[in-house]
């Protein structure tokens, strides 16, 4: 009999099962998420800690904790650097812009999604084209147009009306964000079954009541999403507010630049970092409040679309 050498037998490689691949994918995903979270959280935490330091502590190691909580930096930023005034201007401009864009976009999106009318296709194409227009590229024509309007009304408003007016800035914000807002809301309205509207119409509800009391509550995740995106666009804007508000009534982003220029020369970095925290905190608070609804909107949009 011939003996078979064990070394000549083919060796079987261990198979990688689906569980092992799933665990590897989860591990890589968690590692990526943790790395991104640290990349965002560490600079924010560093700015927060630096805003509580005194002036003398900045000449040592930048990673040391503050010896005491020096909240005077925030008081100086609000009063001496006028960050409080700039903060109120930004809040006014942002809230008014959100009210204007929602007042126009919600009815327009509902009509486009549910009604058949002549020229609807043209309106949709125009809105789609508006998505590709970067407002930063047309801010100079907008500024020149508003200057011409002020010149035409110089007898009525000698000091000007359209330039250096926060309400006009809010109107510009709303007008430039209408295409994106209508596009997103229209896509969401079309995913809602028509049977809900038919049932409300059988109960005697008007079209306006159906839109406000039936469709709008069901589209709350989409409305929350556009509120967050438009809020970030208005709150973080710099170029448009710098161009249309050239006077003392500035927004927070432009005021922060002036504070950076002044405090860099004075070497008072605590006040500068306090101003940065004032800019960051409202965004973090808003996201913390609407985070759940934002995720619901994205998840439902992905399932229904």
Task: Outline the structure in words.
The chain has 305 residues and is mainly α. Helix content is 70%, strand content 0%.
- Head-to-tail CA distance between termini: 70 Å
Number of strands: 0
CATH-assigned fold name of the domain at 83-246 and 298-304: MetI-like fold
Instruction: Summarize the main sheet.
Output: none
Explain the layout of strands and helices:
Elements: H1 18-50, H2 72-79, H3 83-114, H4 120-130, H5 139-152, H6 166-189, H7 195-202, H8 207-218, H9 220-235, H10 239-244, H11 252-266, H12 269-304
Sum up the structure in keywords.
305 residues; mainly alpha; MetI-like fold; 70% helix; flat; disordered C terminus
In a nutshell, what does this entry contain?
It is built from twelve helices and no strands. It has 305 residues and is mainly alpha-helical.
């Amino acid at each position: 009999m011939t003996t078979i050498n064990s070394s000549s037998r083919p060796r079987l490689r261990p198979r990688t099962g689906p569980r092992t691949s799933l665990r590897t994918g989860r591990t890589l995903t968690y590692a990526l998420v943790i790395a991104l979270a640290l990349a965002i959280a560490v600079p924010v935490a560093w700015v927060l800690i630096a805003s509580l330091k005194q002036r003398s502590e900045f000449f040592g190691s930048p990673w040391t904790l503050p010896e005491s909580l020096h909240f005077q930096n925030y008081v100086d930023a609000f009063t001496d650097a006028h960050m409080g005034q700039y903060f109120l201007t930004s809040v006014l401009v942002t809230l008014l812009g959100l009210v204007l864009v929602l007042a126009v976009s919600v009815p327009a999106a509902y009509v486009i999604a549910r009604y058949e009318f002549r020229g609807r296709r043209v309106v949709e194409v125009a809105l789609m084209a508006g998505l590709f227009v970067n407002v930063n590229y047309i801010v100079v024509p907008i500024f020149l147009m508003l200057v011409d309007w002020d010149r035409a009304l110089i007898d009525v408003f000698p000091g000007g009306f359209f330039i250096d007016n926060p309400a006009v800035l809010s109107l510009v914000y709303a007008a430039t964000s209408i295409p994106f807002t209508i596009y997103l809301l229209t896509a969401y309205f079309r995913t809602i079954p028509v049977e809900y509207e038919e049932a409300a119409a059988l109960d005697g509800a008007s079209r306006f009541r159906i839109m406000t009391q039936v469709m709008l509550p069901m589209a709350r995740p989409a409305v929350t999403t556009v509120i967050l995106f438009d809020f970030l666009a208005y709150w973080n804007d710099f170029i448009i507010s710098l161009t249309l508000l050239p006077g003392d009534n500035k927004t927070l982003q432009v005021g922060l630049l002036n504070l950076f220029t002044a405090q860099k020369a004075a070497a008072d970095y605590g006040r500068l970092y306090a101003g940065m925290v004032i800019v960051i905190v409202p965004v973090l608070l808003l996201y913390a409040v609407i985070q759940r609804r934002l995720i619901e909107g994205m998840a439902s949009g992905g399932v229904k679309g």
